[in-house]
Design a protein that fits this description.
single chain, 77 residues, mainly beta, SH3 type barrels, two-stranded antiparallel ribbon, globular
Length: 77
């Protein structure tokens, strides 16, 4: 598996949960979630604990399991 880095463009398949968390007294609590109905693209903006990446897609920031993300590779000419 390729390690994802900040700024990487990623493919998010259908049926992947996108999560938003709130931090209350040091504990992460789910605030909102969304399950993709079709594949979408996002950009990695930071790493989160527990194997999650924070990505920007659909006009907002979401936490997604890194195992559900696929890096879009550049074509070399």
């Amino acid at each position: 598996m390729n390690r994802l880095q900040i700024g990487d463009l990623v493919h998010i398949p259908a049926s992947v949960p996108l999560l938003q968390f709130t931090t209350d007294k040091g504990h992460r609590m789910p605030l909102s979630n969304f399950i993709t109905e079709e594949p979408i693209l996002g950009v990695v903006i930071r790493s989160l604990p527990g194997g999650y990446k924070e990505i920007y897609c659909r006009g907002d920031k979401w936490a997604v399991s890194e195992r559900s993300l696929y890096k879009i590779k550049e074509e070399k000419k």
